[in-house]
Specification:
88 residues; mainly alpha; globular
């Protein structure tokens, strides 16, 4: 899988971990605004998953994404997506 490179205002590439932190911040803000407007959390989650998977398929193709999601059940069971344990 290739990773896109974002650039800072000074023209230097932004490290991957900083891009992920920035993206998470934007998503948290959008999520909070949607919840404030009355959108149900479950609907947001399903729409977010659809949008994320569609973007991954566009970027990497269906086979690569299918292989990636095969590992999700174990990651979920291991607590990677539990807020109390998140290390992001």
């Amino acid at each position: 899988m290739r990773h896109p490179v974002c650039f800072r205002l000074d023209g230097d590439p932004m490290p991957d971990h900083e891009q992920k932190q920035a993206a998470l911040g934007y998503l948290n803000e959008a999520w909070a605004e949607a919840r404030h407007d009355g959108v149900d959390g479950d609907c947001l989650a399903q729409a977010s998953l659809f949008a994320a998977l569609a973007e991954l398929v566009k970027t990497y193709g269906e086979d690569a994404v299918a292989k990636f999601v095969e590992g999700l059940p174990t990651r979920v069971r291991n607590g990677e997506f539990s807020i109390a344990l998140a290390k992001q």
